[in-house]
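Translate sequence into structure tokens.
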Amino acid sequence: MTASFSADPAGFEPVAFPAPWPSRPWIYANVITSRNGIVTWVRAGAHDDPIRAIAGGDFSRPGRRADVRLMRRLRASADAVSFGAQTLRDQPNLIGRVDDVGGDLGESLRRFRTEHGRSPVPLQVIYSESGRVDLTVPIFNTPELTPIVVTTSAGERRLRVGSRDDRRVKLLVAGAESVDSSGLIRAHERLFDELRVRYVDCEGGAVILAALHEADILDEIFVTVTDVEIDPAAHVGIKRITALDGGRARLIAESRTDSDAGYRFQRWRFNPRS
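Result follows.
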């Protein structure tokens, strides 16, 4: 039996999570997916935006606005917000902050973080095996941010050469030439031990979510399902959501908004914890 889940409460309502694990953070993710389970594809150009298409081309829809507000609430509970390098390439101005929504919600999110002893902006974690990230983008050049790159020894060398100020970017080496499951686990144990990261909110993309899931450290995922059907034959490099009801995930909560029945909000848990 699933619980009710208030995806878009009238006022700010924090999202409750279990305690972190003894040696690593509790890791949760959030994605938006089409009705047939597609989350992204290889962009054909600057105007080929998978998220916009999956959202039905209308970011003003009540359901999409509720999805954005939920995303900020999830960020508010995180010590670190993480992204794959491709997500950062596709969205070079991306920063996982909570206060960009403005208004009463933005103020409530900032106050919530302060009251819980968290910094105004979560730590920013980028996963990049190759170290090929653009160090000129805002996430690496905003004074109040702490950017962390999980990479390889080869990626570390590339980043050290490219960084104008290596004190601004913390590197976590998780492998020599590639990052396997054990390397990902060690990287998150270091986040826990060295940087006191207890909760990680991973916002994708699909490749890193699949890697976290394979390493058995993706604890739960919040899924926004739209009413849009995407034709997989119309795109290259289609990625679908990590197996949920066909796997071992358990649906623990779901809801719809009163204003947009076309959007469904689900909360799936992979790793049980009281």
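Note: The chain has one domain: 3-8+21-269.
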